[in-house]
Amino acid sequence: MKRLKKSQALILSLAMIISLIPMASIKVKAGVTWTPENTHVSTQMSPGDLIMYPPFDEDDDDDTNMVYVTYNSSNGSYLGSASDENGLEVTGYSDPSTGITYSKYRVTSCNYDWDTFSVELTGIAPVVQKTLTGISISSPPYKTSYTEGESFNRQGMNVAAVYSDNSSSGISNYSVNPSGALSTGNSYVTISYSEGGITKTATQGISVKSRTTNTYTIQAGAGTGGSISPAGSQNITKGSDKVFTITPASGYQIDRVVVDGANQGAINSYTFRNVTAGHSITAYFKVSAAKTYPLTVAGSFAPAAGTGNYAAGTNVTINAGTVPGYIFTGWITSDGRSFANAVTTLTMPAYALNITASWAPSGSITPVMQVTTTNLKGTQLTSWDAIAAKLDTLTVKNLNKTSSAILNVTSPAASCYIPQNVVAHLNARKGVELRINTGSDVSYSFYSDLDNSAFAGSNLSYTAKTGNVNGVRQQILDFVEKGPINTNISMHVKLPGAVPGQQAYVYLVNAAGQQTLYLPVTVSADGTASFAVIAKVKMAIIY
User: Fold this and answer.
1) Residue 280 in contact with residue 260, Cβ under 8 Å?
2) Which residue of 64, 142, 355, 447 sits 20 to 30 Å from the alpha carbon of 198, by its own alpha carbon?
3) Reduced to 3 DSSP states, what percent helix, strand and coil does the chain have, rounded to the nearest 5?
4) What count of other Cβ atoms lies within 10 Å of the Cβ of residue 471?
5) Interatomic CA distance for residues 339 and 329, integer angstroms
6) What are the sequence ranges of the domains in the chain?
7) Residues lower than pLDDT 70 in the chain
């Protein structure tokens, strides 16, 4: 420590006066002079700075002030002290414990009175730049033995980062690879940590054993336009079966179903049998084309009759054409509808449909029939012409033991043709019924009170078959000639073994054998089912 001469003290006094100028906005630099007025706790000083407390009377050599300075290391350990009259120069002390020579100090305390100025300085350790040099696993995880499929558990493992200054620090934001399911090929996991653009790794040994399982996973999924059930990941017990159902959404249809990468086609279900491994199943769908239904036109002689496949609601033109020697008498459909015109339009239903053209001989040909009345008083009539003439004047008085005007006529079932003129004469009377009996199976009733003007003659010949299907009786009636009757008549069908009062059901049967319910009827006291018909179609009566 240097003692200042009186001339130097004078110079320093001038410096102190200058220092009295406000310095709140001035950053203090090394080599400055410090006085009680500008020295405060946290003030930083450097070696070579002057700490001054000049006397108040510069001309009095006996008037002196003392300056005391204590030096501490950066951790607060005592390094040394110095004192002198009126002022002294700051010295750069060395810390024997670290070897650091301090180039900066911070004032940690300062006090002064009328003749003493005391300052305590603590060294400021230089900032040492450190870099990541490695990572270490100071303690292993609790778990180091695994079964394949499990993931690494870092619980209990302590990892530290090691730096270039030989310091270390615990870390937790490290990564582990593999991070997912472990396999039998994994004997260690790799721990990685990055800092300051530097990445370091360490390894932790593990063991992984094979898994013995009794369950397997089937992954099930579906594309746009439908669903698969069940969906997602399905755990299946070894040796068991699993069924998956595929359902398209409205407006879509199944395109294909892929099982373990193989296309199984457009199936709506798939069964995995005796499962012993994992599998996958995925259903794919496509926008469905409009569904079509077959229309079959029979009995037509036109080049383009209308046969084809049509969507429901489509208007289809059908054409019967022409054939020499015959006249067209109408269309009859398998669902019981009839059409009078040879060229007509029908709306396609949402099911298969058959439609048949009916024909009758042209000219004045009158079929020869074996017919006879059975309930006239006196001589019975044996020709349709005679019967037609009788209908003009028929009353109840002309009939045997009856209160109703019903004229009974028999005609063979295999050749039962009803001429137009007979029904035309019937229509001239009111309250008269013409009943044609064809044998033990069927009879027909024509009524004078109905409008029969469109009737042009009709062949009502038929075949009958009685059967029993799974304990259910049925009577099958099939007209020899299909087509419209062009009027309303009643059919009376004998049902062998039927119980009076029971229900019977009349079905229409199409060419494919499919049955459509026509109507239910109640069996009469004589075992007969009676119902109205307007067309000649195949029928099944179930009872």
Assistant:
1) yes
2) 142
3) 5, 45, 45
4) 5
5) 9
6) 6-123, 132-209, 215-287, 292-361, 372-542
7) 1-30, 56-62, 213, 361-369, 403, 413-414
Beta-sheet pairing, 66-72 with 78-85? antiparallel
φ, ψ (nearest 5 deg) of residue 248: -75, 150
Is residue 472 within 8 A of residue 497, CB to CB? The reply is no
Residue 129 has phi, psi (to 5 degrees) of -75, 130
How many residues make up the chain in this entry? 543
CA torsion, ordered 201, 204, 205, 209, to nearest 10 deg: -110
Rounded to whole angstroms, how far apart are CA atoms 305 and 322?
11
Contact 329, 484 (CB under 8 A): yes
User: Of 281, 278, 173, 298, whose CA–CA distance to 235 is shortest?
Assistant: 278
Does a cis peptide bond (omega within 30 degrees of 0) precede residue 178? yes
- pTM, full prediction: 0.36
Q: What is the rounded CA–CA span in Å between residue 368 and residue 415?
A: 9
Q: Looking at residue 21, what is its pLDDT?
A: 37
Distance CA 359, CA 324 (A): 11
DSSP secondary structure letter of residue 510: -
Would you say 74 and 122 are in contact if contact means Cβ atoms under 8 Å apart? Answer: yes
Q: What is the largest CA-CA distance in the chain?
A: 185
| Token pair in block for residue 66 | 């003392």
DSSP 382-451: -SHHHHHHHHTT--GGGBSS-SS-EEEEE--GGG-EE-HHHHHHHTTSSS-EEEEE-SSSEEEEEETTS-
At position 234, the amino acid (one-letter code) is Q
pLDDT score of 506: 92
What gap in Å lies between CA 202 and CA 214, rounded to an integer?
A: 37
Burial class (CB in 10 A: 0-12, 13-18, 19+), 352: middle
Q: Give the residue carrying structure tokens 């670290």.
A: 98
Please give the torsion angle defined by the CA atoms of residues 237, 241, 242 and 246, in that order, rounded to the nearest 10 degrees: 170
CB-CB contact of 72 with 79 (8 Å): yes
Residue 222: is it exposed, middle or buried by C-beta count within 10 angstroms (0-12/13-18/19+)? buried
Classified by CATH at the fold level, domain 132-209 comes out as Immunoglobulin-like (2.60.40)
CA angle 542/417/541 to nearest 5° reads 0
What pLDDT is recorded for position 471?
77
